[in-house]
C-alpha cells in the first residue's frame, strides 16, 4: 500500500486536484470562478490574445471561453477589441477593475504557495520546481512530436488518395 501512496503520477494528480479545489473555494469567496481567475491571469501575461488562443491555453472549448469572457465583460473587467487584420477575431484586453482582482489573485496564490510548501526547505522547492519544469518540457515536446506525426500521416493519406 505504501507504494501506491508514493506513486509519482498519482501524487502529481492528487496535489493538482487539491490545489484546484482550494483555488475554487478562494475564487468563490470573491464571487468568481477559478476559470475566470485563470483568464485574468493569462490576459495579464498576454494582452491582446484571441479567444481561440485563450481556449487552447486553457484546454476548453472556444464557446466556454466566450461565455466566461461575456461574464467578465459584464463586470467591466475585460473588453473585446476587433483584430485590425482580421475582423472575425476578437482580441481580449484587461480593464482597470481587473487590476484589483489580479492583486487579490496574487495574494491568494502567494498564500496557497506558502501553505503547500510549508515545512519544505528552499533547496528542495527549487529542485522540485526544476524537476517539474523538465517534466513539462518533455511532455510538451512529446505532444508536439505526436501532433507533427499525425499531421504528416494525414498528409500522406491525402496524397495517396
Account of the 3D structure:
- The chain has 161 residues and is mainly alpha-helical.
- It is built from 7 helices and 2 strands, in the order H-H-H-H-H-E-E-H-H.
- The chain has helices spanning 2-5, 8-29, 34-45, 51-58, 62-74, 96-116, 122-160, and strands at residues 78-82, 90-94.
Question: Features of this protein?
Answer:
single chain, 74% helix, 6% strand
Please identify the structural class as seen in this structure. mainly alpha
Query: Nearest-angstrom radius of gyration?
Result: 20 Å
Mean pLDDT rating: 90
**What sort of overall outline do the alpha carbons produce when their principal axes are compared?**
globular
Biggest sheet features: 2 strands, antiparallel
Poorly predicted regions: none
Distance between the termini: 53 Å
Number of separate strands = 2
Helix proportion range: over 70%
* Number of helical stretches of at least 4 residues: 7
Our estimate of the beta-strand percent is 5-15%
- Main-sheet strand order equals 1-2
The SSE order reads HHHHHEEHH
In a nutshell, what does this entry contain?
With 161 residues, this protein is mainly alpha-helical.
Please specify the SSE layout and strand pairing.
Blueprint: H1 2-5, H2 8-29, H3 34-45, H4 51-58, H5 62-74, E1 78-82, E2 90-94, H6 96-116, H7 122-160
Antiparallel strand pairs: 1-2
Helix pairs in contact: 2-6, 3-6, 4-5
Amino acid at each position: 500500500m505504501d507504494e501506491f501512496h508514493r506513486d509519482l503520477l498519482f501524487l502529481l494528480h492528487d496535489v493538482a486536484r487539491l490545489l484546484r479545489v482550494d483555488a475554487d473555494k478562494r475564487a468563490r469567496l470573491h464571487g468568481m470562478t477559478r476559470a475566470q481567475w485563470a483568464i485574468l491571469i493569462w490576459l495579464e501575461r498576454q494582452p491582446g490574445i484571441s479567444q481561440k488562443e485563450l481556449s487552447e491555453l486553457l484546454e476548453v472549448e472556444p464557446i466556454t471561453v466566450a461565455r466566461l469572457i461575456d461574464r467578465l465583460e459584464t463586470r467591466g473587467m475585460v473588453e473585446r477589441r476587433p483584430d485590425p487584420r482580421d475582423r472575425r477575431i476578437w482580441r481580449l484586453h484587461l480593464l482597470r477593475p481587473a487590476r484589483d482582482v489580479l492583486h487579490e489573485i496574487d495574494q491568494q496564490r502567494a498564500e496557497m504557495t506558502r501553505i503547500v510548501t510549508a515545512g519544505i526547505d528552499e533547496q528542495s522547492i527549487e529542485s522540485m520546481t526544476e524537476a517539474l519544469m523538465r517534466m513539462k518540457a518533455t511532455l510538451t515536446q512529446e505532444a508536439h512530436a505526436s501532433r507533427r506525426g499525425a499531421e504528416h500521416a494525414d498528409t500522406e493519406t491525402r496524397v495517396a488518395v
